[in-house]
Amino acid sequence: MAVVGVLALQGDFAAHVRVLAELGAQPRVVREPADLEGLDALVIPGGESTTMTLGIEREGLAEPLRNLVRAGTPTLGTCAGLIMLDREHLGVLDISARRNAFGRQVASFEEELELPLGAAGSEPTRVRAVFIRAPWVEEHGEEVEVLASVGERPVAVRRGDVLAVAFHPEISGEDGLHRWLLERVAARAEHAPPATREAA
Ligand code: GLN
Fold first, then answer.
1. Which of 87, 93, 99, 115 is most buried, by the most CB atoms less than 10 A from its CB?
2. Catalytic annotation, pick one of 79, 140, 174, 178
3. pTM value?
4. In this predicted model, which residue has the larger pLDDT, 188 or 195?
């Protein structure tokens, strides 16, 4: 069973825990570095990015989180979680996020999006995306793939097994992105060297 850490310093982590449990994974709330031991995947939820940043600093989680993501651990960041992954925060995804980018007039809205997460030619993952004072991706490096945009603005980006979305999939009961995360865990286990596989 995949052990999936959900950063739980602040924000809507409980909804992610619920979705993961329903999919048969073993969610683990992460509040301190020891909680990161042996994780197969990581979720950084939405919330308020300044508060979350302060919590990460206070708990000494910045470096261990960076190491975990850089080691190739499948990671999903949603909304404030996208901001946490960017260049100015944890610096593990080559993007710059613009906070509250859609402005006061359209603080919250919903969109149907299609994310091409599978192999080439496979059906895209359809998501009812709930945006709440959402960021967008202002700038990104060449290796970052844009999976979906609202207007011209990227709102779902991926590099390898790190997926960052500007919206909340968990609120509308969507589980497609969590399924993707668990698929990446399974794919990694298949390709792991035998020693690692035995230990897992
Ligand atoms: N506006 C929040 C921030 O900048 C993010 C909103 C969210 O996670 N729903 O931190």
1. 93
2. 79
3. 0.94
4. 188
